[in-house]
Amino acid sequence: MRIIYLLTFLYLISFTASSQHAFKKEEVLEDLHYLRKSLRDAHYNLYTYITEKAFNRNFEEIKSSISKDSLSMLEITSLFQAVISEANNGHSEIPFPSAVYADYAYSGGTLFPLEIAFEDGKALIRKNWSNNDSLEIGSEIISINKLTINEVLQKIYPLVSAERRYFKLAKIELFSFPRLYWQAFGEQENFEIEIKKDNKNQKFQIKSIPLIEDFEMKRNEIFSEKREFRFFNQSAYIRPGNFSGDEQKFRSFIDSSFVEIIRRNPPNLIIDLRNNLGGDDSFSDYLVSYIADQPFKWNSEFTLRTSSILKAHVRENYDITNPFWQSVLMHENGSIYAFEFDKYNPQPIDKRYSGKVYVLVNRQSHSQSAVTAAQIQDYKFATIVGEETGDFPSLYASQYNFKLPQTGIEVKIAKGYIVRVNGSKKAEGVIPDIYIKDHLLDEEDEILDGLLKHINIKD
């Protein structure tokens, strides 16, 4: 039964090679060099957010830090994450070491007992599973084991790929601070934490908690696969879930929801793209077709860079008679080319919704969900409500994966560059039309409740 409580998280990050196997230094160095070469050869533009000189300097520092004759999978994963994360691209990453984490869990592992959210430059307690009730929700954490929270984060940042600090912090929330703290600092039985409460600093001693019983079995993941359809008085509400999985089931859910929406014809429709991991445009475009009043596209420009690694991935995983994948194989390795997507037609007038539409976003609206929110905003199909997304809507993405030859560690990499519908390439998330702060991980729904209040006042 214990595995049930890990499946939701582990499905997100895919297993690496055996966590028990130790690798020789020579094997690690071989994969380290292969990683750098593959990033140079296959990434769309490795040096967008960092100079080649700075990237190579970081690489050499990591290489020179390898002094042991053999390394564990956890050590290797952390080293390789520190290489790829230096590119500052959220879609080029090495996943969390899930197999190692699972082994640690089943061997009776323990974790830091506080879940943290990052708001307004502060690390705030959002869940307290410790035995100390004095640690109130919303209290600011100043330090852990005599390291300031910023010093702690400096150890965690290299494990997380993202374009900017705002997105790194969102990803730390997504993967969970206690999990990443364990990866960065190892198992610790006791913690001295300093918190700020009522403008006064206080120190507390707390103990670690059993990973499975008191962490995994008690918490909920931030991301939500759940599809939901309901009404709030005069407003229809639909949460489509991630834009991935069984596409026919997704379409059936959208179809049946809009049949009921059209039948009842409420004045407002709320589409919830918060805590959404994104996915594929074929899902999101189908949803958008129900609120669009003209043919539309999900980007203004889409370009790819092909490589031998990408071509091998395509031949192994996709239908090469598809024009999109054919284009990858047709172009010379290293070339960048544009691929034009056809416009998507809206649903017939009698099937689509024509009332007022609001789309909810937050810092956990990832990848295609951020792109979709920008698409809807740029076509003026709806009003965007919430907080700025962590992901950029113009971004290096279209992610695929390959494995390193010696360790089998999975590498995810961006092969494409997507420009939002309005053509802006500004390094920013989707900026909502109506801003409402989301106090993530608490028991309140500030964004939805705030919008419903706004609608009621307006009506």
Question: What labels would you give this structure?
Answer:
single chain; 459 residues; alpha+beta; Pdz3 Domain; 2-enoyl-CoA Hydratase, Chain A, domain 1; 3 domains; 6-stranded mixed sheet; 4-stranded antiparallel sheet; 15 helices; 20 strands; 36% helix; disordered N terminus; signal; S41 family peptidase; ClpP/crotonase-like_dom_sf; Tail-specific_protease
Question: Could you give a quick summary of the protein structure above?
Answer:
This protein is an alpha+beta fold. The chain contains 15 helices and 20 strands.
Give the overall form.
Answer: globular
Number of E-type strands: 20
N- to C-terminal distance? 49 Å
- The count of helical stretches stands at 15
Secondary-structure arrangement, i.e. CATH architecture of the largest domain: Alpha-Beta Complex
| The top level CATH class name of the largest domain | Alpha Beta
Proportion of helical residues: 25-40%
| Major sheet size, sense and barrel closure | 6 strands, mixed
- Mean pLDDT over the full residue set: 94
Work out the strand percent: 15-25%
- What name is given to the CATH topology of the largest domain? 2-enoyl-CoA Hydratase, Chain A, domain 1
Give start-end ranges of low-pLDDT stretches: 1-5, 11-17
Give Rg in angstroms.
Answer: 23 Å
**Backbone structural class:** alpha+beta
Strand arrangement, major sheet? 11-12-13-16-17-20
Number of domains: 3
What do we call the CATH homologous superfamily of the largest domain? 2-enoyl-CoA Hydratase, Chain A, domain 1
Organism: Shivajiella indica
Protein name: S41 family peptidase
Domain Tail specific protease: 236-435
InterPro entries: ClpP/crotonase-like_dom_sf, Tail-specific_protease
